Amino acid sequence: MVMRINNSNRIFHKAKSYKSDGNNMVKRKSDGAVRSYNERRFKLTGFPLAEKFKSTAEVIEYLSGDEIQCLLCGRSFKALPKHLVSIHRIDSDTYREMYDIPWTVGLVCSESSENYKLSIHRRINCGDLDMVEMARLRKSFKKRQRPLTPYIKAASIERGRAGIIKYNKEKAVFA
């Protein structure tokens, strides 16, 4: 049962007070809820790390374990995005930018990544996923693809240069 008071912006519901600006209701947090939230946000010593990844090998090593460690607080998880949003209040894109993690890899451990791959293959084989639809989604993703990290960009430039040099050498042999 909701009781409204005409001259106030407070709404009383089952003896719990809520603040209201008219449209949105915001529940006041009790001291226990705030304490619980702060306890979940503890950081291990030495965290957050300030270093960024410098190579693809470092990123692969970071993601290859049974669990992935949060570089902000040091705790380990199977999948990181939900933790980042709920505890650190940042999205996975911001986390990737902070540590130069490529956009093409998921922030999950190797076991979870393998499980996701198997479930996708299973859904394709069962006919739940249409390959035409997946190709359309990939195309739309390419349009809004995020920038490359510096070390991947440098590696792709080097591969391009090596390809041009190889092409020119082959062209000179046949000419």
Can you describe this structure?
- With 175 residues, the chain is of the alpha+beta class.
- It folds into 2 domains: 1-28, no CATH class; 45-175, Arc Repressor Mutant, subunit A.
- The chain has 7 helices and 6 strands, in the order ββββααββααααα.
- The strands form 2 sheets. Strands 1-2-3-4 form a 4-stranded antiparallel beta sheet, with no helix packed on it.
- The longest helix has 25 residues, at 150-174.
- It is extended.
- The model is unreliable at 1-17 (pLDDT under 50).
- Biggest β-sheet: strands ordered side by side in the sheet: 1-2-3-4
Which residues form runs of ≥5 with pLDDT under 50?
1-17
- List the secondary-structure elements in sequence, H or E: EEEEHHEEHHHHH
Mean pLDDT: 76
Strand content: 5-15%
CATH class label of the largest domain: Mainly Alpha
Helical content stands at: 40-55%
Query: What's the number of extended β-strand segments?
Result: 6
Q: Roughly how many Å is the radius of gyration?
A: 25 Å
Q: What is the 3D form?
A: extended
By helix and strand content, what is the structural category?
alpha+beta
Topology diagram in text:
Blueprint: E1 2-4, E2 10-13, E3 16-20, E4 25-27, H1 31-40, H2 56-63, E5 68-69, E6 76-77, H3 81-88, H4 92-99, H5 110-126, H6 131-143, H7 150-174
Antiparallel strand pairs: 1-2, 2-3, 3-4, 5-6
Describe what is shown at a glance.
With 175 residues, the chain is an alpha+beta fold. It has helices at residues 31-40, 56-63, 81-88, 92-99, 110-126, 131-143, 150-174, and strands at residues 2-4, 10-13, 16-20, 25-27, 68-69, 76-77.
